[in-house]
Amino acid sequence: IFYTTAMGENYTEDKVSTVHIVGDGIADFIVPVTEYTRLKMNIPEGSTVAIRSLKVSSPVTYIEYGYDNSTQNIDESGNNWNTYDNGFHIYNLAYLPSIWADNDRAIINTEYAELQQANGYYLFDRSAISSKEHGNYLLFRATYNGTDTRRSYDNDDEVIGASIKVGIYENGIFSEKYQYNVTLKEGTNDYLIRVSNDYYWYCGDVNAVKVICDGILYDVDMKVLEGD
Asked: How many other C-beta atoms can be found within 10 angstroms of the C-beta atom of residue 101?
């Protein structure tokens, strides 16, 4: 098979793919393809060829979203956690969600979905998110009562770390896709995260959030808001 790759190019011996077949068989010709590719099949003189079918396909498999997904680890006690290569899909926000909730007007954006607690996860219906054009926020409210130790006896002088894990909950199994590490303050407080910053929000069926915290949280409430 002769082929071309440039505009107005003629067929030459420099661009040819050759396959030898004796009897019945399949001839696989591999040629580079551009918008200007044309093909011409030459059959050797004196040969008889009966073409019963012709298939054109690409030997290349495109990389899919998720090639940099996290790896789930399980220890002997059944505890499981996820690790991320090169820090992909893990965001260390510390106090930022608290600052955004206190100062960003997005906290009053239109509510698309209120997450429902079930089996330790907070679930929502993706179909309720009518628009992702401007992204989305996760509004997270929780109460942390503190421990009143180490001379921290006031009602608002303690903080605690937490991981907000976003993923897919299906058939009783939660598949983590990305996570935010945040700092929660003592008392009842709001936290605002732009949950659409990770591409999994758009390409997967993300429908669940899991909260891992070193302490006990009360009255946890989550909502997905319209972006801006």
From this structure: 19
